[in-house]
From TrEMBL:
This is Solute-binding protein family 3/N-terminal domain-containing protein. Keywords: Signal. SUPFAM superfamilies: Periplasmic binding protein-like II. The keyword Membrane does not apply. Residues 87-309 form the Solute-binding protein family 3/N-terminal domain. The lineage of its organism: Eukaryota, Metazoa, Spiralia, Lophotrochozoa, Annelida. Coiled coil: none annotated.
Length: 328
């Protein structure tokens, strides 16, 4: 009897406990669902927050700015124009005694950009990231300028090959001529016949093997690839000559003036033209940079500021700057 009653009571209690468990399960499921929704909303809000500017000085415009890459804008709303500049180009670009970049090109950038109301920033990079070449191959656009690391490259001259890739602003420096240079005591090199000779060139510069190949008056002007040696900067040319790695180098006077003066190398043969124009700024063909720069350049030529920059001896210890006439 007591056992039966205990069994009956136990059955009733179990049934009641099961109903309570179902209710609790439903509440638990509802709670989990609510927490899931809250978590999703939190993720969405976090993603939106990450996509917003956080007070930095530069933001990125939407694609389709018309300049070939995402354009950067300062907090004031002005478009930022970045200009590549090097450090191994005589009075145009060099590193001073304290390790800072200096040169005529920096002064010109400031003057032109101020006149054009452009917010310009300089970016140091290797010259080969503006224009590049490989021994025996056609020149090609450098990754930095093509990929939009910066908007323009300073101090480049138009050549046939370069105009296939980039656009050029009005020239501010006169074109220079190229020559062969050899060791000062060399008496065997013949600039009229370079058959079998190993010649050094600066990678990506206008004075390249394609320019030599166009010189029909020079026997052997089309060099075998094995006889074409490239270096990345002008300062590497002198050691190539002095250590006998090449028979001669082909470059402009601006890169050899000091070595000639010091009696290390000498010019061999006459002047050779490799350029279509003078020193200028180079930019992508889809960029509006050139038009804006040319307008600023026109203004500083008209108001005399360009002449003042050219007449200054501020950078004379590093060489000369042969400017184009202002023709005011």
């Amino acid at each position: 009897m007591n056992g039966a009653e205990g069994a009956t009571g136990s059955t009733v209690n179990l049934a009641g406990g099961n109903n309570g468990g179902q209710v609790n399960s439903r509440l638990l499921l509802i709670l989990i669902a609510v927490l899931g929704v809250v978590a999703i909303i939190g993720l969405i809000l976090a993603a939106v927050a990450l996509g917003r500017p956080t007070g930095t000085s530069v933001t990125v415009q939407p694609a389709g700015s018309g300049d070939g890459s995402a354009a950067k804008v300062s907090q004031s709303g002005k478009r930022i124009w970045s200009i590549e500049i090097g450090h191994d180009y005589g009075a145009f670009e060099y590193i001073d005694d304290e390790g800072y970049l200096q040169g005529f090109n920096f002064d010109l950038i400031k003057a032109v950009c101020d006149a054009a109301d452009m917010d310009c920033r300089t970016v140091w990079d290797k010259y080969s990231n503006c224009m590049n070449s490989e021994a025996g191959e056609h020149s090609m656009g450098g990754q930095g300028l093509l990929d939009g690391w910066y908007d323009a490259c300073m101090g480049w001259v138009p050549t046939i090959g370069r105009t296939h890739v980039f656009s050029f602003a009005q020239s501010y420096g006169k074109p220079t001529m190229a020559q062969f240079y050899v060791k000062n005591d060399d008496v065997t090199f013949n600039p009229s016949d370079i058959t079998g000779k190993k010649i050094g060139f600066i990678d990506g510069w206008a004075y390249d093997e394609k320019c030599v190949a166009k010189q029909k008056s020079i026997t052997g002007s089309t060099l075998d690839r094995a006889n074409i040696v490239h270096v990345s900067s002008p300062t590497e040319l002198i050691p190539m000559i002095t250590n006998g790695k090449v028979d001669a180098v082909f470059t402009g006077e601006e890169n050899m003036k000091t070595a000639v003066k010091d009696g290390i190398v000498k010019k061999s043969g006459g002047d050779i033209s490799c350029m279509l124009g003078g020193v200028a700024v180079m930019a992508r063909k889809d960029s509006s940079f050139i038009a804006l720069w040319n307008e600023g350049f026109r203004k500083i030529k008209a108001n005399g500021e360009f002449d003042k920059l050219c007449d200054s001896d501020k950078h004379s210890s590093k060489g000369t700057v042969d400017c184009v006439p202002s023709m005011k």
